[in-house]
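Problem statement: downstream parser choked on a complex file, so we are re-checking the raw output for the flavin-adenine dinucleotide run. The parser issue turned out to be on our end (a line-ending mismatch), but while we're here, posting the original submission so the record is complete.
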Amino acid sequence: HSQPAARDRVAIVGGGLAGSLLALALAQRGVGVDVYERRPDPRDGRAEGGRSINLGLSKRGIQALTEVGLIDEVMPLTVTMSGRVIHAPDGSTRFQPYGKDGGEVLHSIDRNELNRLLLDHAQRHPQVRLHFEHRLNRIDKATRELEFEHGGARVIARPAWVVGADGAFSRTRPQMQRGERADYHQEYLEWGYKELSLSPKPDGGSRIELEALHVWPRVHGFFVSHPNRDGSHTLTLFLPHQGPDSFDSTRTPEQIRALFDKYFPDLIPLLPNLVEDWASHPTGSLITTRTAPWSADDWIVLVGDACHAVYPFYGQGMNSAFEDCSALMAALHAHPRDRRAAFIAYEAARRPHTDTLAELSKANFVELKQKVQSFWFLARKRIDVTLNRLLPRTWLPLYTMIAHTTMPYGDALARSRRQEKIVLGAVSATALAAFGAGAWLLRAL
Ligand code: FAD
């Protein structure tokens, strides 16, 4: 379709994960939607170089996919991950289940496959029109026009209202905030990432435990891997951008092999194409962004990474972007005649919690690189799981609340702090009681 959005239709800038889901959700409520995506249609095979990049889908994302009626189609595309397999430097492994029972699992899904499925369903809906290779250039808030670049030509759209779902490097956000007293904060991690692929065995079986997230925790750099349905795994290496043993200093085949000899010797036999893959896969950067406001008047609103990009260490970027879509739909439903009020209510309901998520995601960076192999961390995890088993209604580990419930992120963190206080209180009370009993015994003797 090439007709631009008309006054009675909504324009969504960005047909990624959040944009395509929201297009469907709005269409299901009877709203006409035009989606403008910068890239070519990912379903025609030209877009990605056949690489599979996968993400962990958890409760919040599942909830949003359930609301649009797609979860039964998404689940068969996933591989269940029932816990983490920790790979120690000596090659030994240890399994840490995610929760106390089999219900608390994550689902690994190929991001392109999920995006294609969402676009397919959006396209099949008579209310949705998809416009690929349309890059947003400019927004004129006074005339309420969007300007796109399409094949060297300018396309002008005059939609009823606009959603910015154009990701961490959103163009909608700065255009929307031009001339406003807006806040914007961005922060790059000194570490970057590179994806490598671990092929299946010739018979299609997986070379490492299939139904788990694998972690190779090292203080200086670490791997996380998600499984694919064909028995392969997508490995993501997180490493400093600069300095010794960094992406910058690891370029030649000798340097690549030396890095793996030093930190990940057990991966060398599993990655026969390591040197070629290293050179051909780009090094990515990791960014956290925070901004306010998330909307302008009753005309533009932001969702997903466009208003809160987080580091990927809690596996919540997509999940929270999907949760935004549900929250925006709920706010529009609650304020049917006042879109501006809906946008404000949506931001008030979400922003404090996505701010918390940004902090949690930073904290999990330390956990993944270091703590998962420490004695204290493991002891803490065991206490968490044991308390959860003994007091299933009172004690919920923070990870459980984030990944396996839809409790707002800030509420989950506050509850986790309360729980900790109670347990620390109980531990010190027990210690005091023991001390008192000891003193009494000494006196009695
Ligand atoms: P995107 O998916 O980035 O979509 C934005 C879309 O907008 C893109 O299609 C882009 O082409 C388009 N666009 C951009 N600019 C323009 C423009 N000017 N005009 C038109 N279109 C435009 N999340 C999880 O939940 N679980 C995980 O396990 C997980 N792992 C991750 C691992 C890594 C290494 C990274 C980097 C991220 C990970 N994430 C994970 C985060 C997740 O990928 C993002 O949070 C999610 O993709 C955000 O969705 P979005 O729709 O907001 O943005």
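For whoever reads this later: The longest strand covers residues 183-198.
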